[in-house]
Amino acid sequence: MPQHNKTQMNDLLKSFCVGLEKKNLDVDTLKWAVQTGLSSIALDYSNTNLINDISGCKNLTANNLTSQFWYQTQLNLTKQIISALNEQGIVPTLLKGISISTSYYPKPHYRTMRDIDILVDVREVDKVEEILSSLGYEQRSTYSKEFYESLHHTMPWQHCKEDIWIEVHKRLFPKTSPCYNSPVFQLDVVQNERLLDDFYGLKVYRLSKEFQIVYIATHWAERFKQIGGLFALLDIALIINKHNDELDWNKIISCSNSPHVSNYVYLTLQYLSKSGLLHSSVNIEQHVCRIKHTLGITSKAILNSIVNDYIFVGKPFGRALTVNNIAIIWRHLLEPSSSFVKVLLLPFVIIFPKGSNKKFDFKFQLSRIKSFLKFKR
Known about the structure:
Blueprint: H1 3-18, H2 27-35, H3 39-44, H4 54-87, E1 93-95, H5 96-101, E2 116-119, H6 125-134, E3 137-139, E4 157-159, E5 165-169, H7 187-192, E6 194-199, E7 202-207, H8 209-221, H9 230-243, H10 249-256, H11 261-275, H12 285-288, H13 297-312, H14 323-333, H15 339-351, H16 362-374
Parallel strand pairs: 2-5
Antiparallel strand pairs: 1-2, 3-4, 4-5, 6-7
């Protein structure tokens, strides 16, 4: 992927986050903006070339209209749910997209989201799901209800007419997550970080701005995600830009300094500090350096390169650097252990991925070799 694509995407996001001059997008950057959910931002914060790329601009316009309609549908149904919950004395906590979009984005539909995430007290789950059922939602999944007992949310709910999904969260991370037992994400801490707020005349809780930064960064860095992966960076950049003078960095650092969380938050914030997405008056490097992480120069360079190549500009995966192998590298380098040892063991971890029951199975490795040899760009 040409370097100028990275520059153009960076210019687009700088225009959006800090108000820099709008610039043109080439065809490849335009396509990636559409694919990763940035259609509306690309349309409003760049100068698209209407003469040389008429079809691309029409596609951008169409996707923008779809995003607006889709978001409005999600918003209307969310308001209906919250209204029904409030009537029963339940005040949900809004998580991720639905919370950030209505708090920090100039136009809420700029922040695309796959589903609506709400957090409720475990004692309220049955009542919440009863209300969802009465509103025309049905639980749908290829997995059993028993499977979801180990997760942080119940089986997803889908609206009977609209393709809208709701996740009812009991916690912020599942038992399988390395952050499940992190002190900062225990329910008593989360409860203390909730702030009562207004949501179109309805009562909701939102997480405090400092906690949002730690939670979003952790959720983003815990697992490599290419499509839509830019939104977490935008979420945090917008929070910092809006609240820079009032952010309690001591709280952010204190919340971050635990295994896994420290690496996740450090990776996110050090990347943002160099991205140009923060206002020139913002200086977070003095705070970021206080996070007790285990990312060395080499591991940090590799991870930043992955963000640049695959998340920022959508570089296609290759013969050796498949999506699975990139995910393995990402997860391995973010482990809370010696950076030197992690880099040294990287080839071994790619060949024999941690957590795979078949990593020493001959047939499994043979299939990987065949896939490698048959790969065509």
